[in-house]
Amino acid sequence: MFKSYIKIALRNLSKHKFYTSINVFGLALSISCSIILFLFITYHLSFDAYHHQAKNIYRVVHSITFDDGVPMYDQGAPLALARDLKASDPRVKDIGILLRMHDINVVTDQNGDKKKFAEHENIGLTDGRYFKMFDYQWEQGDSNTALVQPNTVVLSHSLAQKFFGSQNVIGKTIRVDSKNTFTVTGVVADHPANTDLKSDIFLSLSSLKNITPEYAASIEQQWSFINTTNSVFLTLQDGVAPELIERDIAKMKAKALGADIEKAFKFMLLPLSDMHFDGRFAGVIQPSLLTTLGIIGLLLIVIACVNFINMATAQSFKRAKEIGTRKVLGSSPRAIFIQFICETAYIVIFAVLLAFAMVVVAAPTLNNWLQTQLNFNLFTDYKLAIFIVLILMLVIPAAGTYPALILSRFKPVNALKNQIDGQTQSGAFTRKGLIVIQNVIAQVLIVSTILITMQVRYLKTTDLGFDTNATVMLPVPNNAKGKTDYLRNQLLANPVIKNVSFCYMAPSSTSGRGGSVKYDTRDWEKFVGHEITGDANYVKTFGLRLAAGRNFKESDDAREYLINETMMHQLGVKDAQRVLGRKFTAGNLSDKPGIIVGVVKDFHAKSLYVPIAPEYITPFRKEYQYAGVKIGPGNPSAAIQRIKKAWEGVYPDHVFQYRFLDEQLADFYKKEDLMNKLITTSAVVAIAISCLGILGLISLIAVQRTKEIGIRKVLGASVVGITAMLSKDFIKLILISVVVASPIAWWIMSKWLQGFAYRIEIQWWLFVIAAGLAVLIAFITVSYQAVKAAMANPVKSLRNE
User: Fold this and answer.
1) Torsion sign (Cα): 21, 23, 3, 334
2) Which pTM does this prediction carry?
3) Taking the domains of the chain in order of start, what are their residue ranges?
4) How does pLDDT run across 555-593, given as a tens digit for each residue?
5) Best CA proximity match to 363, nearest among 33, 31, 30
């Protein structure tokens, strides 16, 4: 019996190739996108979950809240906290420390062959306890002894090969920033892609005094020395609630910082599993985006199932006699039901196989596009295998049950006479409802795509309050006055270089430096002042605009200050002239007061997620890390070569590297770019699937109304009139979809835009454009088949009667 079901199913699918192809391709498209979204979601959910102690590992983070009540979040923690906590709390099983370094230059010397390398964001200082906490595979050396001694280093496998090109590297040496020589004592396997702990160079923590002798004591001993780059991780004993440890930390904090300061700080334990998602502490992706993508993946499958149901019920007219004949010959409704479920199963299985092929072909491009490492392997990824089984279990009943029930309930007498109109009226109504549903989904995605694209464009093109064009940022390995002055003179000697400024960072960056400020004769203010340090050329180089006063004079210390307009208003002053000449003290730089000499117009020092904060700008040579170089019009490549020549003349032992400021600022919105890509792709797929369904339905309707079309043409109906007759019902359904989808899309996007302090306004004409686009796509899809049917020879259709 089952064998006959298979044969009949294959014959029917082969007989109706066009409709079978539409169903298979539509399902395959939706399933392939759902698989990709599933892989993307599980990839991000797997971050750092592979560590054997992951459930008990926490990162110490903190927030600072002054009397204005607005908390500032940061992922750093003081090393003194780790020292005191380990000594006093037995519920803490272990503590790991990782001090990150932004950039270093590495020089290797193998038999007189010197090579230089520049490394970024993958350098950390740590010790053996860190490797006990996190899972690393050691290829050479021993985690217990490798980083005990000062000036020792552990390398990742790739960097060991990059630096030395040999298998055994134990005992070899590298020179870091032309200052300290480190001996390689270990090699670990490259970290997997799904981790946020992406260090490749591990310098021994005991080397801190040699690397930064001026700050080492403060970093190790002071609770107040909190830096974003200082990571403190705790492994708690089984069953210990993190809230208990937070209370202990609060008690130690009160004792170490004093009553005046400790109230502003709050230390928290962030679970390792939340590190990847918490945007307050440099989380990479928002959990809400993963939820949204999961819903979109489900909706894409729903749209494809809707297409299948519509096509199957619409085909009932063509298969009525087949069903009637089988019932007369003794077939039961149950047998007919099973037959149609088998046909559905074949289509879904073919679609899944085609979806596999689509994913395999698209995976390399997608990984490059999404900056991920998605792996499609059913034999090694049990979660993916379960997901595929669930898709089959969901789609086959969802797509096949309703059409099978409808077809199996036809009365044999009516079926043989093609008198099934009464039974299919409800089916026609259902088809229209399903068409509306699938186009509502597509319309919401279209509107979302338009608004996300506009917001991302706004983020990247809005006036930040300073000039980002043709500005190159160069790292400065040594900020000694003699070297920076010589480099500036060398650069300005070239007419293509318009200005040079040495600074800690560009006016807009991810840096979160700042602290308490004191104005005039008042006490410390109740808000945080955000610090920007740069030399006297800073304002001119970056195009900041003065609202009042003058620029500060060149100095190595903070003696004169510029404040922004927001700072002025926070101080309770409306007239910029009134703050000029007043005393100003930045507690994090010096307790010695300086003078406010000017007010700059507000500019965006952070991303447009947050409002403009109180900022102050002052010179402070010790903190200079970059040179901002303004290039004139002309050939930028030639200018870069001239900059490189001058830079290498000052820092010959370092690798020249640079980045244009506008490219650096674009990194602020990687999350939005990623979301835009994913939503846009989903919208295109949803539209394509909807169009496939409409194309199949208009084809069936044209076949069903062949005689009517022939008679109308004989009686004088025009091609335009017949096309309009066949198209108008579909266009009406699309318009209904637009009306339903518009408020839904408005609500969803309003919620999303609220996450930005600066955002576009949702305009009514956006919905008109989206509606026009949806109607146009549907009209083109319908018109193709409608015109084809209208232009058919009426003699052939009437001759068949």
Assistant:
1) negative
2) 0.81
3) 1-47+284-419, 56-281, 424-462+668-801, 478-653
4) 888 889 999 999 999 998 999 899 999 999 887 666 678
5) 33
